[in-house]
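_Backbone structure tokens_
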Amino acid sequence: MFAYLADLDRQPEWQRGVVASRHVPSEPPAVGTRVEKVRQTPLERVRFTDEITIWDPAARTWTEQVVAGMVRGSGSRWTVQPDGTGTRIQDEVWLRAASRWRLIEPVIARSARRDMHADLQHLKGILEQHRR
């Protein structure tokens, strides 16, 4: 599960709204790796760049910070843990909208929570199909 989730170029497969994702450099992810993404919002396509600030495959966790784009300063921490016969994914997100987006930050936050819940359910379906 960690390997699939941490394959940053595959995010469009399970994250609705992410239409492109590419990590730079193309070597395996590490601290400092940047992930260039394009997300389709209800209003427009937006580009942003995340940078990995913590990468710990042994602990199955990583943290990324948005360094360019409309939510610069936002970030997330991902952790994948065994849970009985399954796996638990924990995603902690902090949001900081930039400039004109600051006025609608509460709307962006609500939408992001709703989308992430749906995305994780979609991810669960994908992974369960691969296990069969």
